[in-house]
Amino acid sequence: MSTQTTETTTATHPFIEACFGRPHAHVPVWMMRQAGRFLPEYREVRSKHSFMEMCLEPEVAAEVTLQPIRRFGMDAAIIFSDILVFLPAMGLNVIFPEGGPRIENKIESAADVERLAPIVPAEAIPQVYEAIKLTVNELADKTPLIGFCGAPFTLSCYAIEGKGSKDWSYTKAFMYRNPEAAVMLLNKLADASIAHLNAQLDAGASAVQIFDSWAGVLSRDDFEAWGKPYLSRIVTSVRRPDVPVIVFARGVPFEWLHGIGADMYNLDWRTSLPAAYQSLVPAGVQGNLDPAFLLGPPERAVAETRRILESMNDMTRFVFNLGHGVLPPTPPETVQAVVEAVHAHSSGATA
Amino acid sequence: MSTQTTETTTATHPFIEACFGRPHAHVPVWMMRQAGRFLPEYREVRSKHSFMEMCLEPEVAAEVTLQPIRRFGMDAAIIFSDILVFLPAMGLNVIFPEGGPRIENKIESAADVERLAPIVPAEAIPQVYEAIKLTVNELADKTPLIGFCGAPFTLSCYAIEGKGSKDWSYTKAFMYRNPEAAVMLLNKLADASIAHLNAQLDAGASAVQIFDSWAGVLSRDDFEAWGKPYLSRIVTSVRRPDVPVIVFARGVPFEWLHGIGADMYNLDWRTSLPAAYQSLVPAGVQGNLDPAFLLGPPERAVAETRRILESMNDMTRFVFNLGHGVLPPTPPETVQAVVEAVHAHSSGATA
Q1: Is residue B174 included in any domain, yes or no?
Q2: How far away is chain A from the Cα of B306, in angstroms, using its nearest Cα?
Q3: B269–A219 CB contact, under 8 Å
Q4: B282 cis-preceded (ω within 30 degrees of 0)
Q5: Which of A211, A327, B7, B275 measures 20 to 30 Å from B195, CA to CA?
Q6: How confident is the model at residue B166 (pLDDT cuts 50, 70, 90)?
Q7: Does residue A346 carry a pLDDT above 90?
Q8: CA–CA separation, B268 vs A347, rounded Å?
Q9: Does A351 reside within a domain?
Q10: What is the mean pLDDT of chain A?
């Protein structure tokens, strides 16, 4: 019966099954920034559109989301978008010149925080959810699609500094000086993030990942104050049956992640993945190949991939990924070799 | 007798005594980048000289080294210089435009590494050691002077990328692709660093600190390969009686530091200082106030300072410092409040 066939297919996406620690046919693999500049077909699209256009033209966003799936057969797609995509609707003017995002009217006072508007993302940025619908339709239930957002602390970094930073010290200084405004800002960003993730799930995404890309600059006390409560609130507020919620608090020691409540934690290459797995159980782990390995000899990247896979043998709640995004000069052939190494290693092993 | 008096003074610098875990009158304090842009008297000097001029004009380097000692009474001075100061003598053209250092002929091949010249720092950059002599003379044995260098991995980051980077992935890629050239590069940089530190000690410095500022981007295996052996070799090669050797491998978990052999380890604000102390014993620890606290309300900075001091009560091998350099917009009054809080907390406590 066709209905049964469809259900069986849905129930056996290795990525979804692995995120819940259920039996699956092979270790699933995807890569952060797999839809990106390292792909010639991406650069071709990018040459015709600004970055924001790519995020906000549904056909374009869907196309670049699908490119790595077609080429490499990853076990999950992730919608092409940006963590800052809903900030303009809140009143922050984001632009994307060369050299990284800028916010033209960054937050400089408590009054600036008060002025930030609450948003209904489905009305403010319908293009993102339209892109998800198009992508899900194209994927035809063969590959699950991940939606994502930035964590409130990471979004507040950009909102306060107005541009990238190594240490985000002005963000921290703002929060020390304006503790009440900081809480208001983090809560407003959490509200928007929750609505954004739920709208992505409503549009057909099968999983979500929350990127706290800059949490690694925080002390433990500050992570407890500005990171964890908001991550935890988002996780709780988007929870649905069979929908994995993944948290990537980049640079944060895994011992600090307890209590967030995610199904999976993405970890970087400085972390021992088996040690993190043992600590975070019953949650699972995702990671953690250093993307710099993909710039070196392909055989070295494959050897490191196998080393990670072997270290994680018998740990079923595991998704192979990088410890950070694919770097632009990465040869696509090396990505392919790594994906093939993951699939070859594990075929039949954990079914 | 005057000789005895001098010896007694030398023997009771709290900074030196604390570095060896010997009794001392109060917890010593100094701050990374204490000679820097946050001081109006530094900016006054800086307005008349380029950065490289400041490093290579002995009177100027000595003057800015002394400024924070005069103003705040820190327990140690650190010579004003730069970790890249000897690279030009090796054949790398370093310039310091706005936005950070650049190397005009960065290393792109194994042949480039082979061409790097061995150096005799005392001949190549005599100005640095002359600055140390002038400074030591001015300090008149009241305050010890720290010399410093960059660690080979951190120097190789600049040598290979030619400019700053967030993740130093091209450095790592170069090392994966050219493992033999990487070893040669790290060894050449270690040789120069050893000669540079020894020349600083010969000129009168009382302690040295090795800055591995970018070791935090490395996986444990890569730190074992590219970080630790060279740090360890430098430590061994500069060892002298009563001269503390401090290592700051920024962002590296303290558990990875065992075996380097330093007397003290500087740690950042993400580290639990008491936990690091227990782990690294018999070595000591230095740190670890988040410099961002100095941008917030002074009373918060003082409260955090006291929290660190209380957490380290009874741990005698401890020097108070920041977890990273003083940030340029720091109010000097806040630095003063922190120095006073350290001295007030501990007066008479550990004698």
Answers
A1: yes
A2: 15
A3: yes
A4: yes
A5: B7
A6: confident
A7: no
A8: 43
A9: no
A10: 94
Among residues A42, A129, A158, A230, the one annotated as catalytic is: A158
Q: Domain range for residue A199?
A: 2-346
In chain A, the number of structural domains is 1
What ipTM was predicted for this assembly? 0.90
CA atoms within 13 A on the CB side of B117: 12
| Residue of A42, A75, A82, A230 with catalytic role | A82
CATH number at residue A31: 3.20.20.210
A125 in a domain, yes or no? yes
Residue of B nearest to A307 (CA): B221
A277 carries an active-site annotation: no
Q: What is the DSSP string of A4-37?
A: HHHHHHHHT-HHHHHHTT---SS--B--TT-SST
CB-based contacts of A159, cutoff 8 Å, min separation 6: A87, A92, A103, A106, A107, A185, A189
Query: What is the gyration radius of the CA atoms in chain A, in angstroms?
Result: 19
Per the domain annotation, does A76 fall within a domain?
Answer: yes
Cα separation of B161 and A279, whole Å? 37
How far lies A337's CA from each of A147, A306, B151, B269, in Å?
26, 11, 34, 39
Structure tokens at A245: 């919620």
B293 contact A CB<8A = yes
CA distance A138 to A142: 9
- What is the DSSP-derived secondary structure letter of residue B29? B
Is the pLDDT at A81 greater than 80? The verdict is yes
- B80-133 per-position pLDDT tens digit: 999 999 999 999 999 999 888 999 999 999 999 999 999 999 999 999 999 999
Q: CA Rg, chain B, in Å?
A: 19
Q: With a threshold of 0.90, does the pTM exceed it?
A: yes
